[in-house]
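Action item from last week, closing it out:
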Amino acid sequence: MAAEPGPLHVVVDGANVVGSRPDGWWRDRPGAARRLTGQLVALLTTGTRELAAALGQPADRSLRLHLVLEGEAARVEDLSTHALLDVVRADRDGDSAIVALVGELDGDDRLVVTADRELRDRVRAAGADTAGPGALLTGLPG
């Protein structure tokens, strides 16, 4: 009998996901980070079946989320929390932090959510799969 797969580590390029919606995020980057983090926590609290399916995974696949924030968003202190959500605050640029995180998670299943073509190429070379922001946004509640 084959062993059950471990959790899928979903690495979210926060700036890219927030930037994919023209909702005025640029006027309040800290607020945009709070909203996205809150949505991820709500998802983890209510169940990840829809997100797993939106990411092309079996609905019962367990997920662990890693939200990478950069710039002003990385300095927000009052973000929502959940045991299955790691917030990674990039020291410099988010892309380098994402590539480093993918390397740290080597050996585990990894999927990076971004539309950045260069970043997608870099993480694929490191063995991660990718999905666009739309897949994540489709799987979020509300």
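Closing note: Residues 8-139 form a domain with the Rossmann fold fold (CATH 3.40.50).
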